[in-house]
Amino acid sequence: MNIVFHGANAQTFMPRFEILLEQDHQISFVPDQIESSEHIATYQAADIVIGIRYDAGLPKLSAQLYQLPSAGYDKVDLNMLPANCAAANVFGHEKAIAEYVMMALLSRHVPLFEADQQLRERNWYYWAGKPTGLRTELGSETIGIIGHGHIGKEIAKRAQAFGMRVMMANRSPVDVQYDKTFGLTDLAKMASEVDILVNCLPLAPATESLINAKIFSAMKASGVFVNVGRGAVADEQDLFIALQNKHIGAAIIDTWYRYPSPDNAIPNPSVLPFAELDNVLMTPHMSGWTEGTIARRQQQMADNINRLARGEAILNSLK
Questions:
Q1: Count helices and strands in the chain by DSSP H and E runs
Q2: What is the 3-state secondary structure (H, E, C) of 72-97?
Q3: pTM over 0.90
Q4: At what angle do helices 291-309 and 94-106 cross, to 10 degrees?
Q5: How far apart are CA 312 and CA 249, in angstroms?
């Protein structure tokens, strides 16, 4: 079969991919912008496309499988795919994202780098036994996680290991024991009871701006909001105002509202000046991007291709 990797994101998964396949297949690459006749022909001849975007601006496909190398599929118009073309996503990023969240939260309690710099200058401010330098503990806080999917479950495990109280909000009933559980309609109630609120939800019509002024107003003034789901699940303007006016204490934001594109390679991540705020930790959608994530996703994609070649049902089907 012809396997075509489409775009820079998908290209990351190409090295050594062939060794995961049970049969020999032709593997090709086309860039994000498919313009040349050669690239158009390669793309349209694909039996399997690995990519993160499919819309009316791209050549029509006749593929058997559209395989995303990511969990989010909001940039793929599933209705435009051929009727007999299966579609699937992958996960494998949840362990990395959970580590990112715990690191970001721990950094608010354990000033390792500040203490290191001070001691190099013979400043013993954090020395145990002195009245200075007392710090807080992450384990004393309550975390509220929105979304009991792959990411939410991994964050919950690590939070419990630190001794934190864990609350969970989810659309459907949760079958795991936490300190408290809520439906998404009761999100404001959970927000009022936690020290940290973490969004793990994907973007969909039902989740866009789900976390808004009502939710931020319910949070404690010292509360911390963390976004490792999709940016637009948190209302852009409402989040900025809540931070600017100190209605909430801080935010850790990894998923944004604007991303690099062919027209703008280095955009601001929002139309609003989040970078001017002193109570925001900003990172460039990096929380799940590790060597482990790449390896796990490669294996999941290869498994689906192998299943397709054997005539078996694919995993994580989206159609």
A1: 9, 12
A2: CCCCECHHHCCCCCEEECCCCCHHHH
A3: yes
A4: 160
A5: 51
The tokens for 58 are 């791209």
Distance CA 74, CA 191 (A): 26
Distance CA(303)–CA(319), nearest Å, equals 18
Place of tokens 């991303």: 259
- The pLDDT score that the predictor gives to residue 298 is 98
Q: Locate 59 and state its tokens.
A: 């050549």
Q: What is the pLDDT of residue 130?
A: 86
Sheet holding 26-30, edge to edge: 26-30, 2-6, 48-50, 65-67, 86-88
Structural domains for the chain: 2-92+291-309 (3.40.50.720), 94-282 (3.40.50.720)
- Number of other residues whose CB lies within 10 A of the CB of residue 80: 14
Written as one string, the DSSP assignment of 242-308 is HHHTTSSSEEEE-S-S---BTTBSS--SSSS-GGG-TTEEE--S-TT-SHHHHHHHHHHHHHHHHHH
Nearest alpha carbon to residue 239 among 248, 276, 199, 271? 248
Can you list the residues of the chain whose pLDDT is less than 70? none
Residue type, 214: K
pLDDT digits (tens, 9 = 90+) for 255-285: 999 999 888 999 999 999 999 999 999 999 9
Q: Are 66 and 72 in contact (CB under 8 A)?
A: no
For 205-219, letters b (16+ CB in 10 Å) and e give eebbebbbeebbebb
* Angle 220-221-222 from CA coordinates, rounded to 5°: 85
E strand or H helix that includes residue 65: strand 65-67
CA atoms within 13 A on the CB side of 313: 5
